[in-house]
């Protein structure tokens, strides 16, 4: 069987596109629908694949924190380089922050407890893992990252798609290396806390 005949895989990708289309259709409903989307991601992931956790707690915490810091540093360096070019990167990034940054306490709660775990469980723990059953795992990383980036087309921001693709590659490689979803969640958490709350770019 190929992944094109894997109905849970196909339904998952189709639903992700529908949900993200609705999510970005109206700024006022963004946090509500994106939360619902990630609850769906968590549900389909848990019923479809066991959660990989092949690292001890101390190990996945260290690798998670370190990799999150590294990814943020890479993004900060890339942002600085791109800002030197005539691409209006600063304007695009500022627009994203203005429209979609968390404002209320419940936004921060769902970011930590729902959005970050949901994205890692779904895109790495389900989509990439399923692709890896049908092809070389490094090709699976590439395709999963592209699929992850593709749902952000509805944001209308090319910089968001590019960022998602690069982050997807980074976390995809980490997943192949360590086979630990909790580690990826910690990495994603550290990265998002720095990028969105403590040290936003732009």
UniProtKB/TrEMBL annotation:
The chain crosses the membrane at residues 7-24, 30-48, 60-85, 105-123, 135-152, 158-177, 184-201. Keywords: Hydrolase, Membrane, Protease, Transmembrane, Transmembrane helix. InterPro entries: Rce1/LyrA-like_dom (IPR003675). GO terms for molecular function: endopeptidase activity. Residues 103-193 form the CAAX prenyl protease 2/Lysostaphin resistance protein A-like domain. GO terms for biological process: CAAX-box protein maturation; proteolysis. It comes from the Bacteria. This is CAAX protease family protein.
């Amino acid at each position: 069987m190929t992944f094109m005949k894997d109905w849970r895989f196909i339904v998952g990708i189709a639903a992700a596109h529908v949900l993200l289309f609705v999510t970005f259709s109206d700024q006022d409903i963004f946090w509500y629908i994106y939360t619902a989307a990630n609850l769906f991601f968590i549900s389909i992931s848990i019923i479809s694949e066991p959660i990989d956790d092949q690292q001890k707690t101390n190990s996945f915490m260290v690798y998670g924190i370190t990799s999150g810091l590294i990814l943020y540093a890479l993004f900060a360096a890339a942002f600085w380089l791109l800002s030197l070019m005539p691409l209006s990167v600063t304007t695009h990034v500022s627009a994203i922050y203005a429209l979609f940054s968390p404002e209320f306490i419940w936004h921060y709660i769902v970011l930590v407890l729902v959005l970050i775990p949901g994205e890692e469980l779904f895109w790495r723990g389900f989509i990439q893992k399923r692709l890896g059953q049908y092809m070389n795992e490094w090709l699976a990383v590439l395709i999963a990252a592209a699929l992850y980036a593709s749902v952000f087309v509805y944001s209308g921001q090319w910089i968001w798609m590019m960022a998602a693709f690069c982050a997807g590659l980074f976390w995809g490689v980490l997943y192949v290396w360590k086979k630990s979803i909790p580690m990826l969640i910690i990495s994603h958490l550290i990265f998002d806390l720095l990028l969105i709350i403590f040290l936003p770019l732009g």
